Structures are given as C-alpha cells and as structure tokens.
Amino acid sequence: MLRRIVQRTLATHAEKPRFLITGGRGQLGRGMAKELSARHGEDSVILTDISYPTGYDLDLGYTACLDVTNYKDFRTVVAENRVTQIIHLPALLSATCEANLPLAMKVNIDTANSAMLIADEFKCKLFIPSSIGAFGPGSPLEAVPDKCIQDPLTFYGCSKIYAELMMGYMSKMRNNDFRCLRYPGIISPVAEPGGGTTDYAVDIYKQIVGESQDHFECYLAPDARLPMMLEEDCVTGTCDFLEVDASKLTSRVYNLGAIDFSPQEVAAELAKQYGDFDMIYNVDPLRQGIAENWPKVFLDDGARADWGWKPKYDSTAAMTKYMIENIPKNPNAVKKEKPASDMGESLLDQLKAMSVGEREALFSKL
Fold first, then answer.
1. What's residue 337's pLDDT?
2. Domain ranges of the chain
3. How far apart are alpha carbons 155 and 119 in whole angstroms?
4. Is 183 a catalytic site residue?
5. Catalytic entry in 52, 62, 71, 156
6. CA atoms within 13 A on the CB side of 351
7. Average pLDDT, the chain
C-alpha cells in the first residue's frame, strides 16, 4: 500500500510532464513526439512500439521497444520512467480488424485495458484516440455531433466505443484524467497506408505525385464522402487538447473535425493543381460498406467551444496544396499497368460507339 502511495505521489508531483507514447511508430506517434518534445523538452517523451526503431527514430533518441500486450513490461516502463501521461495509440484499423478478429481483440481491447489499469494505479493521465469508425447506420451520418446514437457495425468501431465509455467511467468513478478525441481519416505525406477505409486519400497523392503514376485505382465509390484531416492539424489539435485544464472540459470525448470530401472531389482538385490522370473506380464491397455507415461530416462544436479548436487546413484545396508540396518523390517507382477491368470497359465503350458496319468490319479482321 505504501509503495503504491509513493508511486502515485512521484507521478503526480513530477517536476515536468513525462509522456509515454505506445504504438508510436505508426501514423501519428512520431508527429506527437516531435510536437510534445518541442513544447516540453527533448527528454519529456518516450516513444515506443513493438517494432524496432528506424534510423530516423535513433537519430531522435527514440530507441525504446515495448510490446504492450505484455502487461508486466508495460507497467515496468511506466513505473521506472515516472511517466505522468500515457498516449496509447496501438490499434488495428477497420478492414484489418475484420480480417483477423482474435488479433484485433488482443490489440484494440486488451492493451487498452492494460493502459487504463496502469494509468489508474500510478494516477497518470491517459489519452486513447477514437475515430469516425465509432458510428454506424443508426447515427445521423449526414452531420454527426459529439453525442448521438453510435451503432457501429465493425469490430474496430465497437472497440473505439468501449474506449470512449471507459474514459468517462474511469474519470468520473475513479478520479482519473482520461481523455479521448474522435479522429476523422488522417492524411499524411509520409505515413504509409495501413489498411484503413480512408487510406485512399493518402495513397492517391503517393501514387500520382510521389510516383508519377498516370492513373489511380480507388476502392471507394466516387461519391463516398468522409471527414478527413491533415496529420499536422491532428497532432496540433491533440497536443492542445492534452494541455487544457480539466475544469474547462464539458466531456471526456470530443469530435475533432476539419474537412470532408469524396474521391471524385479530391481527384478533381488534384488534377486541377497537379495535372490530369485517370481515376479508376474498382469498388471494394467491404470498405465501401464500412464507408457508407460512417459519418459524412464531423461536427466539432464542442471542441471549438471548450478549448478553441480550429484547423489550419480546412479545405480540399488547402490540403491538396500541402500534400503536393510535401509528398516524398520516388523517381524509381515502377509504372503500374491499368487494371484489366478498366481496359475492358474502355473497349466496350468504344464498341458501343461504333456503327453495326464498323463492328462487323472490325470482327472480320480479327
């Protein structure tokens, strides 16, 4: 009992914040580490992941490996480093969850439970992000507010609702400072697509701008509108949220919004700013079905009112300009062949446009 009291006192009265980012070598972790280090000092952040550090991580001093499915190791890192705040990012994304449900349960649910129990023991602050995936067909999908029916149809969404509810429970009933933001689709010029339903919005820039491909194959329908956000805005908004005094928060869970668009809109804007390319729609029923049951627009009135949230990039044009300027170029990329289905459809269209006599002449030559 005395040991626990001492541990809590050390964490609570540390001279400055000490952040532990778990699952940090994914899409957002490095950006958060960079921003938090700039705000609180280079030695204020411990960035970890199950994967080994890259050269980039080593240059920045992020050398730690941590498998958060191992509760004992997770707890030891928090205790020995006098962590004051855990940013818990590990999660399998929507389509990946459905392909491997046992692993999704282990990563999305079990490690979140570990984070909550450890944070409760040492009285660390805890942040676990949620997502547009936490909504479903019973939600007001045309414009989703902070509080409404959520009703997800995916395991990913169910796991996020579980985290959201536990943030509130552990804060109210156990006197913790646990917080959660619902993210839209996150777009980054450097992060690799990770199997999510919104990843086309990253991949289109990577292929057309970064690899100079002449076409892009999209797995969502042309009008599949979804809310999105540049990673820079997401990182800044999250770090601002973490610093807000708890007394100003009217909720433990907020939507974080920025822009919304469909594949055909982002394709048109990219063509306008960068040059023409062929947009090919080869709709994946699984991811299209997921997208149809997610919000089209994110309402973030609560975040704007309670802690002054305002995105820097709030239009498709501004986002596209940023991506064109910042996407890494790969001059050695192999040119991709257009899908056979598209070439078949093109040939069919040409045949339909021919007269009967022209078709007969063509077939006689074949």
1. 85
2. 2-326
3. 25
4. no
5. 156
6. 10
7. 89
Neighbours of 41 (CB within 10 A): 12
Helix (H) or strand (E) holding 217: strand 215-218
* Dist. CA 213–CA 235, nearest whole Å: 30
Q: Please tell me whether the overall predicted TM-score, pTM, comes out greater than 0.70 for this model.
A: yes
Residues contacting 198, CB < 8 A, separation 6+: 132, 184, 185, 186, 226, 228
- The CATH number of the domain covering residues in 2-326: 3.40.50.720
Strand boundaries in 60-209, DSSP class E: 85-88, 125-127, 130-131, 178-183, 185-187
Contact 204, 248 (CB under 8 A): no
Q: Quote the tokens at residue 354.
A: 């021919």
User: Rounded CA gap, 197 and 289, in Å?
Assistant: 10
Q: What share of the chain is helix, strand, coil (3-state, %, to 5)?
A: 50, 15, 40
The one-letter amino acid code at 147 reads: K
Predicted confidence (pLDDT) per residue in 276-327, tens digit:
999 999 999 988 998 999 999 999 999 999 999 999 999 999 999 999 999 9
Give the tens place of pLDDT for each residue, 210-262.
Answer: 999 999 999 999 999 999 999 999 999 999 999 999 999 999 999 999 999 99
Q: Residue written as tokens 């807000």?
A: 244
**What pLDDT is stored for residue 6 in this prediction?**
46
Q: What angle do CA 216, 288, 147 make, to 5 degrees?
A: 120
3-state secondary structure 50-75: CCCCCHHHHHHCCCCCCCCCCHHHHH
Q: How far, in Å, are 189, 231, 237 from residue 131 at the CA level?
A: 20, 14, 14
Distance, CA of 163 to CA of 143 (rounded, Å):
22
Percent of the chain with pLDDT over 70: 88
Backbone angles phi, psi at 100, to 5 degrees: -150, 80
